[in-house]
Design goal:
Order of helices and strands: EEEEHEEEHEHHEEEHEEE
Number of helices: 5
Strand content: 25-35%
CATH architecture of the largest domain: 3-Layer(aba) Sandwich
Number of domains: 2
Radius of gyration: 18 Å
Helix content: 10-25%
Distance between the termini: 44 Å
Length: 238
């Protein structure tokens, strides 16, 4: 008989200003960083609204706000509308390739360009490759990378996790000089097709906050479901 793994201790992070809603105070519920999170346990965490940042597993647990919802696309029912079809047509010269998880100088250079454009001067805009590796290229679960290229030029990179019922998009970064290609949207469209191709049901997209305009794009990918931590259940959003 196999010995059942003990449940991990949970910790609450210190309160801090929410990076998405400046009027709110944020905090996270954290899995003990010393605990060995197995792939099977990670599957359960994902289904219960947790996300992964390197070797850190967390879920928002804010004192006065419950807007953060983990969201997932029901990929087998996703039908691209005209806007998505135009994005695909505009990028018919883009090739997708999957690769193993490891540090690559080319990826790090693209990451730096993306962060300098999107998060200039904040904690994400950091030239330290060690912090990049802690964030994206170190994983205890089944993680891989997706590259989008125009010829030999790297357009976008996604870090993706295999989970029991789908693929979890950990992070995507892209060349800010090619905004006209809508590379973020293009990356999600490729992730949807990849999830379908391996006969999974869900693409987990991270957190969505109704009052955060930067996250509004996620509701375009219908049918979308969100996890309600109070009810411990997924429900239809769009």
């Amino acid at each position: 008989m196999t010995r059942q793994q003990a449940a991990p201790d949970l910790y609450q992070s210190s309160a801090h200003t929410c990076p998405y809603l400046s009027r709110e105070t944020a905090a996270n519920l954290l899995i003990d960083p010393k605990f060995n999170v197995t792939p099977a346990m990670y599957d359960s965490l994902i289904r219960n609204g947790f996300r992964r940042n390197g070797a850190l597993y967390y879920r928002p647990h804010c004192p006065s706000c419950q807007q953060c919802q983990s969201v997932r696309i029901r990929v087998n029912d996703f039908i691209p509308g005209r806007s998505f079809k135009r994005t695909l047509a505009r990028n018919n010269d883009v090739a997708m390739e999957l690769c193993t998880l490891r540090f690559r100088e080319e990826h790090f250079a693209l990451y730096r360009a993306y962060q300098s454009d999107r998060h200039e001067g904040d904690s994400m805009d950091d030239a330290d490759p060690e912090k990049y590796q802690q964030f994206l290229t170190r994983s205890r679960v089944d993680t891989f990378m997706m590259e989008l290229r125009v010829g030999r030029r790297l357009l976008a990179v996604s870090v993706l996790d295999h989970v029991a019922d789908g693929i979890s998009a950990v992070y995507t970064f892209f060349d800010p000089a090619h905004q006209q290609r809508s590379p973020g949207t293009l990356a999600i469209l490729h992730q949807i097709e990849l999830t379908r191709s391996v006969e999974y049901n869900w693409l987990y997209l991270g957190y969505w906050i109704p009052d955060c305009q930067k996250m509004a794009y996620k509701t375009r990918f219908a049918p979308l479901e969100g996890f309600d931590p109070a009810a411990l259940a997924w429900s239809h959003l769009s």
